[in-house]
Amino acid sequence: MPRYFFHIKDEVETIRDEEGIEFHNLDAVRGEAIESARERMSGEVREGHGADGRTFVVTDEQGHTVLTFPFKDAISD
Question: 0.85 cut: is pTM over it?
Fold first, then answer.
């Protein structure tokens, strides 16, 4: 099963996912990106912070970008 890495990028920095997660297909990767973005944003809203400007940059094991997913897109999905 392929492994995907969910790096978080904002205007200032990129937080690299060094472990990754295995998924069967890109639909499952996108679903994880949506749920993870929602979880992170809700936690930050509870702490009084926003999540504007952050994006998941998901790469495969070879380092190729397979999905770029702005957190704000998780609100409308």
Answer: no
